[in-house]
Amino acid sequence: MNILFVAFDYPPLIGGIATLSYQVAKNMSAGEKILVIATAIKGDREFDKGSGLVTFRITNIKILREVVLFFVALYLIFKFKADVIYNLSWYPGAAVSRFVSILTGIPYVIHVHAMDYFEDRTTFFNRLKYNQLRKFIKKQTFDRAKKIIVVSNFMKDRMVVRGVDILKIRVVPNGVDLSRFMPHLDSKEIILKYKLENKKILLTISRLHDYKGHDKVIKTLPRLISKFTDIVYLIVGTGPYEECLRKLTDELKLDGHVIFTGQVDDEILPLYYNACDVFIMLSREIYNEAKVEGFGIVFLEASACGKPIIAGRSGGIEDAVTDKVTGILVDPLDQDEIESAAEKILSDKNYAEQLGSNGVARIKEEKLDWHNVSDKIREVLAEAKG
Amino acid sequence: MCGICGIYNYLNKTPVERSVIERMNDTLYARGPDDEGYFIEGNIGLANKRLSIIDVEGGKQPIFNENGKICIVYNGEVYNHIELRRGLEDKGHIFKTKTDTEVIVHLYEEHGESCVKFLQGMFAFAIWDSKEKKLFLARDRFGIKPLVYSDKDGRLIFASETKAIVQDDSINREVDFEAVHYYLTYLSVPSPLTIYKGVKKLPPASILICQDGKVIEKKYWTIEPKKLKFSSVEEYGDTFYKLLKDSIKMQLISDVPLGAFLSGGIDSSSIVGLMSQLSPRPVKTFSIGFEEKEFDELKYARLVAKRFNTEHHELIIMPKDIGRMEDLIWNLDEPHADSSALASYLISKMAVPHVKVALTGVGGDELFGGYHAYMADKLSGFYSTLPKMLTQKMIPKLISHINIDTQNPSKMRRVLRFLKSAQLPFDKRHTRWMTLLGFDDDEKNELYSDFLKSNTSGLDSLAVTSEYFRKAETARLDYLNAAMFVDLNTYLSNDVLQQVDRMTMANSLEARVPFLDHKLVEFAFSVPSNLKVKGLSLKHLVRQSMKGLLTDEIINRKKHGFGIPIREWFKSDFIRENANEFLNESSIKHRGFFEPGYIKRLMDEHARGKADNSHKIWIIMMLEIWCRRFLDN
Fold first, then answer.
1. Which of these, A96, A124, B293, B561, is most buried using a 10 Å CB contact count?
2. A153 in a structural domain
3. Domain count, chain A
4. Do A123 and A93 lie in a common domain?
């Protein structure tokens, strides 16, 4: 099968979706012919050289990119006899694919994550942007798509309510790179760096956004400190909410109990997971601003490293964390629930280990590694091809 | 699913007679053909007939707590029992079975009477607490499962159905004429009345405690609408979809085969669609159709079945399939003239060889605005802005002169029905539109014999709903939500749920109602009514939310009830013969309730095709059949 893979979120960009697009392309390329169309950004040449994938870079200037994508896609379809177009987002990839598909009859598939689908309409600018025309294009784009891949049952439900035919939707949960994320890695390096010997470590790895729930963990810390004096909350990542979180930490006088690591190198992330006692991320949904967790790859990474999880019951997280099996789901706004979950895991070592090992086992059983995830996607693409 | 009954002589120590309890329990045979159980100890006696659904082998009732001091007989399904059990086990309770029944016993130990607040599902049960010398009865929030009782001279008798209660010699089988009066308007006997004087229904969401020589009835739950700060219609849709899906998911627990009744309407189709997403095997679906084209929904049901690849069963039914009318009324237990009972009966009969449990779309119309009456309610809002001269005088005068000499339903007839009640106050006109098949006061005046008139004088036919209109006002519901609230508490509870329970139980099949999950209901009454009925489009929110689940043919379908073509069926020999037998002049005179002349006129008019009196004749006929089966025999 010849696959035209349109991914505007693709390395060297960083983040969950960029990781996914590269992992999927790489894994699928073992059995199928893949042509990647991505945006031209700094460092792309070096990346593409090492990636082993045929990659076409196009401009990311609005309006121009749509036109360029249209012609590049047409050219590649005729040149390489593509069987299916696989879009990693609905706009602009799938919206352009629709026109390509009308002309060529080649089916297209859309992979939907979360934030790429919902639209923030809180500000005047956004209301202008997400106007009726865009809504119309979106509907047309999804109506013509042969298959739609979503990352969680939550996303599936949301799309059904918005009128996407349920029979076209396939749920393919995200995966994790098992060659990197595994239990029992020596994380001394991290322990020493942040002076974490004999500490109880809570860890969040994510961009610092308001909906990720760092604030709720910080607010619960004083209560937890009264029970576990040696507790430390390690916040990995950067983002627009950092300033607020730092301020909150100061206000609550949590100096020494909260550590902001800033951006860390992707390569050593598994060590961070391995260093912690519990991975905690209390993402909540902020409906108006279209902020929600579609799945949460970090939870799988924590599970792959054999760690217990505390997660906010929102969005697609229920698919990423099995409640009371691989972690504990809590109401992300309820401090009592957060506190008792943390207390349970930090005080009951056996239980914590059980959750962790269940996580490792679950990933194996449900085949949540990139290799298998790519296979599942390949099946959907084959189905779309017909 | 089961039948339960019991006797408690709470003022003296008179022992409960085993033979009476056995006789009572035997009348409930169809509700639980798999097993039976008794607990009789001095002045208390409990019994149960069981239809085994969960823990088929180990669930024999009555069930006791650890020290044998607390005993329960129970009818229902508690869907969150596994979760509750986990919590109770953590607190040290020891379980002997895997049943939801036992969960209630331990929950009662833990929380006393408040245990009901933790239960999600449908239930009616009796707990005997021998330490406290207390009998505790409870019924689910919406009255999905029945419980009736009589409290006379220190003897409390309760049962799933009235036919069990009247087995006791202390009960006079005397008809309550107030119940008859309401039945003729509402087609069923409204709670808390039953057709027997002195026998009452325990209202939905109520408990009854009999202790220290006193009997106290209490409400444990009422709908409390929340103020939702939702910014878009989609958010309402998302929440609705999730709640319905969660409810269905929960209701799929069963140790026996499970299916769904599929009418092809939006509610049952949504349920089948979601079930098919949630269960690994193809869903078993059941549909009935009629030879009369206008009523044939099979086409739509088939579309849904095909879309979700269900194991579909369908059957065309005819009047003779009803069987003996006396048997039907025996199963109905009380007079009940909603023809959809026949549909429920026949579809259960068809499904029971394949499944023991079936999900239904019941409740969707009351919660999300599915009845034409809501449309009329909306229109009457505009109508009332017209000059009074026109609406109060000229139009009523004009329509009194218009007579439609036909049996066929027509738009004109609808308009006339609308106009006839449009000038009434809101609560009255809504009730009138919801009871169009019943008799109004003028008709009752002609129908009643002097005897019945004297026994019902001063009764207001509309009193049944006005109580709930007042409650809706306290709950600050907008006018259309108020109407839906009233219908949920009256029409759904008294008519629909009662007939669905009786007719499915008659076939030993358990019906489940995913729309009546209390979280979903609470949400429904927090949704502004203009989202439920947008413009004049009924069920707007449901249609919007199910767009991706169902196809346009189902989404855009016009409302069609789960009824049978009674008007057409009246032409059949089967119904005609029954009408001749039960409504002949001598039997009407013998009964003494009605004017034979008026009934003859109704029948003649119908026979000549001048008017559609089929439902009215059906109402009277069902009452007469009930009297013969339960009073004369």
1. A96
2. yes
3. 2
4. yes
